[in-house]
UniProtKB/TrEMBL annotation:
Gene: proS
Cross-referenced InterPro entries: aa-tRNA-synt_IIb, aa-tRNA-synth_II, aa-tRNA-synth_II/BPL/LPL, Anticodon-bd, Anticodon-bd_dom_sf, Pro-tRNA-ligase_IIa, Pro-tRNA-synth_IIa_bac-type, Pro-tRNA-Synthase_IIa_type1
Source taxon at top rank: Bacteria
Protein biosynthesis in keyword set: yes
Annotated source species: Halobacillus seohaensis
Protein name per the record: Proline--tRNA ligase
Name of a matching Pfam family: tRNA_edit
CDD domains noted in UniProt: ProRS-INS, ProRS_anticodon_short, ProRS_core_prok
Reactions that this protein is recorded to catalyse: tRNA(Pro) + L-proline + ATP = L-prolyl-tRNA(Pro) + AMP + diphosphate
Length: 567
């Protein structure tokens, strides 16, 4: 393609709202443009890159036995009401009304739609297992879209769904998708990890996220320093053992703690370690209030709390709620004297504590010498905290370290979660009705493009992997006004195209410095420059990643390029 005829609007400076490299470079290099907050157009080169990733996804999904289809983005509310997610999915679901005041949602995901289709189309075990997929734009009303393609309100996603006779059959489908995902991200050249994850609003239990390692990732990965164990920090169980103190319990005492608001403030004021205090936080778990107690140096994991109660929604109670229920604001909240109608659950480490401090449910006061079991009752002790660096790895091998990651894929074992709610059943080999068993598998295709840029760039621009780049070769004619340069560049352009090599031909009437800077910014793997030695039939070849340069006779260029890409 001739660059003079293409829409590739490059920029010298970073956009003011672009915080991370992928956002900065994809905009500067003319791959994307924002049309509204969190909504982007893919310009021609951006679409070519997106299609390269889509092609990899399609090839691996087809190899795994999945079949491509297309479902509507506009989904009737009744389907979501059948599954129960209309009321639980939250404010990210984009909802609208048609002219007849019928409620719809713009598809954030398609579990409901595909379940309704399959339950009507498949009635016999002979048609199972079945896996279908689509590549389609999705919509989520992000409260704060940011990081370009990493958190948008409209994005391209591959979503797949498997329908099985049994949980054993689901395991087989899940493993096929897991392997396909591993192949997809490896072929994209990404440094990634598959980590144990939370199913969240999707339902189901067993699930893994595919995380691309990056400092700009919004998710924290807990991994073992000596094994392949890895989990999202929300899901990593704590297996650290806590020994009970041998102190004799002392009498409970209320003390004044004026203007001491945080756990660290109180610890400093009372002259004890942070771990010698307990933290109490009130949550609303579905429709009931629950007080959660942890050690002062630990952080409450609301995902573990949600799983403990098998709840749909877990939110922090408001300060008004705590005032009404406990007579105290956040800064002085504690478990002593909790009304019987409020359940108290505590992290496992709390059970071992003796003579610790806690809020006294009175502004400016705390208790000291608090002892669980004596001074407050705990309904259940459970693992309710986030794992910490240095904790033992849950698999018993090594200790935990943290890394940041960008989620690019997620695989779920949904089980009977949707099929049961939406009456998706089939007749088994004995003619009896059974509920289908489902899996759901998603890849953020546009998000994967951004993740690739996060791992493939330098100070000059993007450094695309060869199989993802919009073109294989960037051909530059430094001075098209000179006839020898124009003729040789035109000749090479035709030869490269005839040889089946994707080439972007910079024939613009721009200064050489502008062309070189744009070429580095765009990031095509191989650059061929037709310059001063055009009359001798000599061109310069430069590798984008290594920066290595070489002069070649134009007659040998096709062979050189073919060998370079086959190496």
């Amino acid at each position: 393609m001739k660059q003079s005829q293409m829409l590739i609007p490059t920029l010298k400076e970073n956009p003011a709202d672009a915080e991370i490299k992928s956002h900065q470079l994809l905009v500067r290099a003319g791959y994307i443009r924002q049309i509204a907050s969190g909504v982007y157009s893919f310009l021609p080169n951006g679409r070519r890159v997106l299609r390269k990733v889509e092609d990899i996804v399609r090839e691996e999904m087809d190899k795994a036995g999945a079949h491509e289809m297309m479902m509507p983005a506009l989904q009737p509310a009744e389907l979501w009401q059948e599954s129960g997610r209309w009321s639980t999915y939250g404010s990210e679901l984009m909802r609208l009304h048609d002219r007849h005041d019928r409620e719809f949602a713009l598809g954030a995901t398609h579990e409901e739609v595909i379940t309704s289709l399959v339950r009507d189309a498949i009635k016999s075990y002979k048609r199972l297992p079945l896996t279908v997929y689509q590549i389609q734009n999705k919509f989520r009303d992000e409260k704060r879209p940011r990081f370009g393609l990493l958190r948008g309100r409209e994005f391209l996603m591959k979503d797949a769904y498997s329908f099985n006779e049994s949980f054993e059959s689901l395991d087989e489908s899940y493993e096929k998708m897991f392997a396909a995902y591993s192949n997809i991200f490896a072929r994209c050249g990404l440094d990634f990890r598959a980590v144990i994850a939370d199913s969240g609003q999707m339902g189901g239990k067993d699930t893994h996220e595919f995380m691309v390692l990056s400092e700009v990732g919004e998710d924290v990965i807990a991994y073992s320093d000596t094994s392949d164990y890895a989990a999202n920090i929300e899901m990593a169980p704590v297996v650290a053992e806590h020994t009970i103190s041998h102190q004799e319990p002392k009498p409970l005492k209320k003390v004044s703690t004026p203007n001491q608001k945080t756990m660290q403030d109180v610890a400093n004021y009372l002259n004890h370690e942070l771990a010698e205090g307990i933290k109490a936080i009130m949550f609303k778990v579905d429709d009931q209030f629950v007080m959660v107690v942890t050690r002062g140096d630990h952080e409450i994991n609301d995902v573990k709390l949600k799983n403990l109660y098998d709840a749909d929604i877990v939110d922090l109670a408001t300060e008004q709620d705590t005032q009404t229920l406990m007579g105290s604001g956040f800064g002085s909240l504690g478990p002593v004297g909790t009304p019987k109608e409020i359940e108290v659950v505590a992290d496992l480490a709390v059970e071992k504590l003796v003579n610790v401090s806690s809020g006294a449910n009175e502004s400016g006061y705390h208790y000291v010498n608090v002892n669980p079991g004596r001074d407050f009752e705990v309904k259940e002790y459970a693992d309710l905290r986030f794992i910490k660096e240095g904790d033992p790895s849950p698999d018993g091998q090594g200790t935990i370290k943290f890394a940041r990651g960008i989620e690019v894929g997620h695989v779920f074992k949904l089980g009977e979660f949707y099929a049961d709610k939406m009456n998706a059943s089939y007749l088994n080999d004995q003619g009896k009705s059974q509920t289908m068993v489902m899996g759901s598998y998603g890849i953020g295709v546009s998000r994967t493009v951004a993740a690739i840029v996060e791992q493939y760039h330098d100070e000059s621009g993007i450094t695309w992997p060869a199989n993802i780049a919009p073109y294989q070769v960037h051909l530059l004619s430094l001075n098209p006004k000179k006839e020898d340069q124009k003729q040789l560049a035109d000749q090479l352009y035709d030869q490269l195209k005839s040889a089946g090599i994707d080439v972007l031909y910079d024939d613009r009437k721009e200064r050489a410095g502008v062309k070189f800077a744009d070429s580095d910014l765009i990031g095509i793997p191989l650059r061929i420059t037709v310059g001063k030695r055009a009359g001798e039939g000599i061109v310069e070849v430069k590798e984008r990643v290594s920066g290595e340069q070489d002069e070649q006779e134009h007659s040998k260029i096709i062979e050189y390029v073919q060998q370079w890409f086959s190496a």
